[in-house]
Amino acid sequence: MESEPAALPEDALAEVLRRLPPHVLAEARRVCKAWRDAVDGRLRGNLLPRSVRGIFINFSQTFFSEFFARPSTGPAIDGGLDFLPCMGVKVTDHCHGLLLCCESGDDALPREYVVNPATRRWARLPKRPRPHMPGFEQTAYLAFDPVVSLHYQVFLIPRAPLPCDGETDGDNPLLESEWPPASYFIHVFSSVTQRWEKTTFLREGEAAGIVANKQWNLWYDHYCYQYSYHAVYQHQQSALYIHCRHGYLTRMSLSNHTYRVIKLPGASELMRYPNHHHLGRSLRGVYYAILDDRNRLQVWYLSESCGRIEWLLKHDTCLKTFEHDDYAQQVGRQWILQDVNYRKWCSEDPENHKVTAEEKYDWNSDEDNVIDTQNVIEEVEDVDGDYFLLGFHPYKEVVFLIFICNNNQRIGL
User: Fold this and answer.
1) What angle separates helix 33-43 from helix 10-18, to the nearest 10 degrees?
2) Mean pLDDT throughout 222-233?
3) What single-letter DSSP state applies at residue 338?
4) b/e per residue, 19-33, with b = 16+ CB within 10 A?
5) Is the peptide bond prior to 180 cis by the omega test (within 30 degrees of 0)?
6) Nearest to 122 by CA among 94, 147, 99
7) How many Å apart are CA 32 and CA 34, to the nearest integer?
8) What CATH number does the domain located at 58-319+360-367 have?
9) Chain centre to alpha carbon of residue 42
10) For 86-105, how does the pLDDT look when each residue is reduced to its tens digit (9 = 90+)?
11) Boundaries of each F-box domain copy (predicted)?
12) pTM of structure
């Protein structure tokens, strides 16, 4: 490779860069400043990938995140993230192709990483600062948009403390405090400064309630909170939308450091179905899905126009279950579960079971066959199980679901 990019016409150079796999482009950026500027100037916007390569899933009884994909042509994605300097991780958040991961282990203070699985580049986050409010835990969320900048931020959002057994409001004055508070003190990590800094966000409008009223189901809080709540970063609005407990989200404006509480549709359903709701980003922005025990799926879109913020119902349907012997024909080609946990724990020689380029563990969603839920085969008696929400396609109005049979067989849709 020459020390500087070849003097090609703009369209010719863009076409050359477009044909390179992401990890090669990442290495090219490191050659010199001229190559970095050439890649960055042509990657943003029209050169960014517009397809989904796969889905990371956190199953409740597995140690590491799994990677669910379909076989196709193209560069391989290592779902086990074996290039990290640890045995394995759980993916706790994601934003525009970047992953926020937490090392899985017995360490009380596990290491955290920001990872690009396509380029195989990663950065370890510094140790988290202690919460500003004693007794409050923090959940980390990513904010990143490669069209604007290759730098990212990580926000540590406080969440209300859980009461101890037998604790009453009089025992803990925090339980009588407004939640969310009028002033939110938040730690933010920037990849530019490489350090955590404290930022204050001021609330606009009313609070959601008091801390004591946000704790009415301890099983719901302990079991479901860590991986059931997500955030959406929208650069156009310069806002981070965070799914909070008990039926609301907070819209945090990064431009003027204010935030407001927005009630979620169907909030009363969250108590009964804590694993059957999902906040995510799709074609038009912020979407929210609810799936009840009757397999009724509702999808909402957050509209922000003319100074109004309101939820619009986009889809309302009842899902059917698949006839066991015919689901593969309806879906098309079967999905591939890389079975990360088996490879890492049960393999006699884990080093020989890492994903290689020849295994082609990736998925081109543009070739996907999306199922029309109105024409799915009627439910049959010998197939029983539950649907669970996985998330949204970022560029199409498509919801990803998984159907887990009672025999623990998993069917991705």
Assistant:
1) 90
2) 65
3) -
4) eeebbebbbbbebee
5) yes
6) 99
7) 6
8) 2.120.10
9) 26
10) 989 999 999 988 999 999 86
11) 2-52
12) 0.77
